[in-house]
Design brief:
Elements: H1 7-15, E1 33-38, E2 43-46, H2 47-50, H3 65-69, E3 72-77, E4 87-89, H4 96-100, H5 107-116, E5 121-126, H6 134-143, E6 151-156, H7 163-169
Parallel strand pairs: 1-3, 5-6
Antiparallel strand pairs: 1-4, 2-3
Helix pairs in contact: 5-6
Amino acid sequence: GQYSTGKTSFIRHLLGVDFPGMHIGPEPTSDKFMALIHGEDHKIIKGNTLTVMPELPFFGLSQFGSRFLNHFNGSVANSPLLQFMNMIDTPGILSGEKQRLSREYPFSKTAKWFADRSDLILLLFDAHKLDISDEFKEVVETIRPHNDDKIRCVLNKADAVEKDQLVRVY
């Protein structure tokens, strides 16, 4: 989802715990992909380390180079849900002037890499933000082949709009 749609808050709710590296705010709070991994000790693991840990599925990310790996971290948290899965908290997709400041790595290609290996992809939308940025369109087009089997759309903050406004949002 785009920035400030509630991605990190949603994951925090699912996990039931705060996790290392978690930042929540109204503006873009992180430009990092965050892999959430189960462990007893809460800690951050740098992206280049994650790609060489044989017990984790991130080896292929080294193809995106050090510029991407500087924007990829692992967050180890003791959440029962993470015993059964890893989750990826993505950086907010940018819009407007923020979008023009190019990223240091191919965002849509890395999003596709994760999508190709995921069992479920949640696209979060904010009921108050009706615009879709060019970068968001590009990511959706890149992951579109998974549309029928594993993409689900989540309309976050829908409880804060009137019922008749939901038709316009849809």
